[in-house]
Amino acid sequence: MPYSQDQDRLAINIASMTSESVEGMRLYIKDEQENYVLYREAELPIDQDDIQRLKKRGVRWLYIEDAAKETYRERMRAIAFGNTPVPTSTRIAAISGIVRDAMETTFATNDDEIICNATKTLSNVAANMICREDFGLKDILPVLHHDYGTFTHSTNVSYYSGVLADALGYSRDDVEEIVRGALLHDLGKLDIDIKILNKPDKLTDREFRIIKQHPIQGFVRLTNQPGVTFGQLMMTYQHHEKLDGSGYPVGIGADEIHPWAKICSVADVFEALTSHRPYRKPMPTPSALAILERGIDNTFDGEIVSCWKSLIKKNSTLF
Ligand SMILES: [Fe+2]
Fold first, then answer.
1. Residue 52 lies in a domain
2. What is the CB-side half-sphere exposure of residue 237 using CA atoms within 13 A?
3. In which domain, by residue range, is 226 found?
């Protein structure tokens, strides 16, 4: 059966794929209608030439069946944390896959304790990666997903926030805390009806009022969790505040917004603009950067925007 729809699959980025990691697994691609199409039977191994051909065709993702997920995860853990030498890009792709996968699984539980415990481990793993001498933004950008979902968005925002914090001179421990805060910043969206979050049309005033509650709901969820720091609480509570006091949920001004919330705000808006949304296509990076720059001093902190812009420009070959 070449086509199957709406089945649970795990997406694998072919930039990081090795033939060994998917050995013995059926592989699928998505057609233009987003249907899964069988690309290769399990007994037919994929080799580097096949992978190169797929890249030339512009295919970025292959998909494996639900039943193969656990085996794939074990192989990824061995690449990410094992002693076997692998190229840095392969290890980074394995780590980012593990973080995203764990975020998806834990957010699906809607259990604050499980989510908070998982983010503690994940932020440690992510900060170790980000703070390595040989790590650069260019290593992580090609392997990020840009589909729409709170956990995908939060995972990407956590990398962007961590990379920004590292570049701004924060310590390794602060980077880890900031990554964790960013993983949790939209936790309150779990209280919002998915139909409103995914609505393709313009939101009504009532719907927008509901969306604007998510920083408060996230804050309330986190106040009950041990080990969540003040900075992380503020990242959740204040990431939609603006320097001129026109943000939400409170409308506080520049001096009252926590510096980590200011980092999260820049990372959050950049990620949202450059990702798929139910109502629009991803915005090109230069346009997203221009929006951030227009927001300097009224919405965003100028030093953080400048830092992000220079980080992106250093990696401009990707755009
Ligand atoms: Fe948010």
1. yes
2. 19
3. 87-318
Cis peptide bond upstream of 282, omega within 30: no
In a domain, residue 79? The reply is: no
Distance 249 CA to ligand 1 centre (A): 10
Of 72, 96, 111, which residue sits at a domain end? 72
- At which of 49, 72, 95 does a domain end? 72
Residue 80 lies in a domain: no
For 100-155, strand residue ranges (E) read none
pTM: 0.86
What's the gap in Å between 18 CA and the centre of ligand 1?
35
Contacts of 221 (CB under 8 A, 6+ apart): 112, 187, 188, 190
Question: Model confidence over 222-276: pLDDT tens digits?
Answer: 998 999 999 999 999 999 999 999 999 999 999 999 999 999 999 999 999 998 8
Q: Are strands 3-4 and 36-40 parallel, antiparallel or unpaired?
A: antiparallel
Query: For residue 49, what are its two tokens?
Result: 């030439």
Residue 77 in domain: no
Domain count of the fold of the chain: 2
What residues have a C-beta under 5 A from ligand 1, the ion? Answer: 186
Confirm whether 189 is a catalytic residue.
yes
pLDDT tens digits, one per residue of 189-202:
999 998 898 888 88
